[in-house]
């Protein structure tokens, strides 16, 4: 059966990121980055506040993760986005309430 859904450029490779890794893998990488960023945000906020270099690192991780899971969601793969966003919140709460 032929699909009537039109295909567009970059649907599976996300434009220039077509290096042999499929979109689902990029989505799961983004989910991992979001979880890592969530843990970092919680760690910094619960300790001494967010400082210069950590702010830049957490923003970079967050934006990269959001871009990757967003691209995966636009390609029809929603699970990495859900896992990444819920995992980021859970990781931040875990890092805030876990003693050193």
Characterize this entry briefly.
The protein is an all-alpha fold and 100 residues long. It has helices at residues 23-47, 52-74, 79-97.
What does this structure look like?
- This protein is an all-alpha fold and 100 residues long.
- It has three helices and no strands.
- It has helices at residues 23-47, 52-74, 79-97.
- The N and C termini lie far apart (58 Å).
- The model has no long low-confidence stretch (mean pLDDT 83).
Secondary structure layout plus pairing:
Elements: H1 23-47, H2 52-74, H3 79-97
Poorly predicted tracts of residues:
none
Approximate helicity band? 55-70%
Radius of gyration: 16 Å
Provide mean pLDDT, rounded.
83
User: In angstroms, what separates the terminal alpha carbons?
Assistant: 58 Å
Number of helices: 3
The oligomeric status of these chains comes to single chain
Basic shape: elongated
Throw out a few tags for this protein.
100 residues, 3 helices, 0% strand, elongated
